[in-house]
Amino acid sequence: MLSLESNGGFTLVELLVTMTILALLLALGLPEMGTYLQNAKLGAATSSLYSAVQTARTEAIRRNAQAQLVLTDTPVQTANVANALAPAVGGRNWVVRAASGVVFVAVETKAGAEGSSSTGAPAIVVAGAASAPVVFDGTIPFNGFGATATGVGYSIDVSNPTAGICASAGGTIRCRRITVSPGGQISACDPAAAAGDSRAC
After folding, report:
1. Which whole number is the average pLDDT over 125-135?
2. In terms of Cα–Cα distance, which of 40, 41, 113 is closest to 76?
3. Does this model's pTM top 0.90?
4. Closest by CA position to 179, among listed 199, 160, 194
5. d(CA 159, CA 122)
6. How far, in Å, CA of 4 to CA of 74, rounded?
7. C-alpha angle 131/137/140, rounded to 5°?
8. What is the mean pLDDT of the chain?
9. pLDDT tens by residue, 37-51
């Protein structure tokens, strides 16, 4: 008597149905994954800049002398960059420098394209501002008490225009803002977060 044995495996129809479902799920998920990655990149850039502002304030207190965070387009490899740099409101690089007599010494530097293998225009864009009557030139100075040397507050907006519009303007990208109060308190916030949210500005 012949016995019928079941052969393991998939039929062609089952395989096609499975592949169609996977393709559909990927097509639906990829845009969200792209947004997530862009938001993560913004978060990392904000964290780096936040750390730089904290470093400038800490150095001012430690040295009991003025220290500054300076946004600049001057390459950070420039000789004597602490004194040779030109501040820029939307500079892609930043330098933390501290006063040492009549000159500055570099404490920490970072190139905007560092780690990205990119020499073109940066994806992450920063734009700083100061409270009146100070006009922001790209520099946030701290005095030996840890307060801003100018007695006004500052803010730095971090965005990624190539990825999309900020959520605060109706887009999907979670742009960030770093604020420095006149007394030197530093915070990072999300301009799109609702009032009452701990992330709100």
Report:
1. 91
2. 113
3. no
4. 199
5. 11
6. 79
7. 65
8. 87
9. 888 888 888 999 999
Reported for 71-74, long-range contacts at CB under 8 A and 24+ positions apart, including other chains, are 71/126, 71/128, 71/138, 71/139, 71/156, 72/138
Cis peptide before 133 (omega within 30 of 0): yes
Render 23-45 in DSSP notation, one character per residue: HHHHHHHHHHHHHHHHHHHHHHH
Residue-wise DSSP of 51-65? HHHHHHHHHHHHHTS
Classify residue 78 by its DSSP letter: S
pLDDT of residue 119: 46
pLDDT in the model for residue 115: 43
Alpha-carbon dihedral angle through residues 17, 19, 25, 28, given to the nearest 10 degrees: -100
* Phi–psi pair at 113, nearest 5 degrees: -95, 5
> Could you tell me the two tokens for 38?
């862009």
pLDDT at 193: 85
DSSP reduced 3-state for 73: coil
3-state SS class at 46: helix
Q: Cα 164 to the chain's mean position, in Å?
A: 15
Distance between CA atoms of residues 67 and 146, nearest Å: 9
* pLDDT tens track for 86-116: 999 988 899 999 999 889 999 999 987 544 4
Q: How far apart are CA 52 and CA 27, in angstroms?
A: 39
